[in-house]
Sequence to fold (174 residues):
Amino acid sequence: MAAQLAEGQEAERATRATDSPRRPRSPTTSCRPPSSGSRRSCPPAGGDSGATVPATDVEAWTAALDASADALGGTAEGDEDQTVTRGALLGAVGLLRSAVEGTAGLPAEAGPARQEQLARVARDRDAGVALWQAGATRLDGLVLDAGGEHTHLFLAPDGDPRSVPREFQEPDED
Fold:
């Protein structure tokens, strides 16, 4: 009985090693434009660029983030580590969506209301990227533990994929 259980667990780990990295690639790609685009009006170092984000961009980013959440939500249930990893990635998508929604409601005129909104956008965006990094790191560990190869699904903190450290870049990002 114990041998059968061990075989079943090994098969499950092998399935995770091949399936887990495939599922989040699309959400990672979908999260990059909203993460980097929100920096047009709200630079990473803080401050105010004075720019507003076109409604068409906000709509496209929101749709991409919703698709990311749907893809991640469709990931099969697994053990506690998988559930926590998926929760981190879903939470990151939610925070990035909140940042995008904040750029849509950004007052055009300079002043305290705009500064407060920019602070919320920056906070949500930066927390979303940080949470995504945590989930992506954990996913990489799960895949390695299951006998797979490294899978790097990182978002660049400044929104520029070229700023992801070289060792974490996918070959097609070089």
Remarks:
- The helical segments are 2-19, 22-37, 55-73, 80-104, 112-145.
